[in-house]
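Course assignment 3, question 2. Fill in each field.
Student: A.L.
Task: Predict the tertiary structure for the chain below.
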Amino acid sequence: MPFIHARTIRLADTDAAGVVYFPRTLSICHEAYEAALLAAGIDLKAYFAASDGLTVPIVRSEADYLRPLFAGDRIEISVSPTRISEHGFALAFEIARIGPPRKTAARVRTEHVCISANTRERCPLSPLLAGWVDRG
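Answer field:
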């Protein structure tokens, strides 16, 4: 079952035309990813600081923009992790404007790979992260 993160589109998310600026869509998804990790009991400070010697960079991203979002719109972002290898996973995001009517505004997918912070070689996902992904 996907994790759901709700928020309001802010003026800072928009461009001069008044719609969400396309790179902000990825930032909004990353915000939802962080919220999903927190909800799963993963310590963000340790996770993003590579305190265990591992880091998990994004190696691929793609997005489909289906309709504009404007400042003040209420949205929900669903986050669904999927394992793609012993050292990688993908996140599928769906951004929906909360109605009426509810409408999907964007679909985003990111791929992440676990690597050693020192050697930059691929490593298996940590047990905590693997557990979160596999429950996805």
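Instructor remarks: The beta strands are 3-8, 54-55, 58-65, 74-85, 88-97, 103-113, 115-116. The helical segments are 22-39, 44-49, 127-135.
Grade: pending
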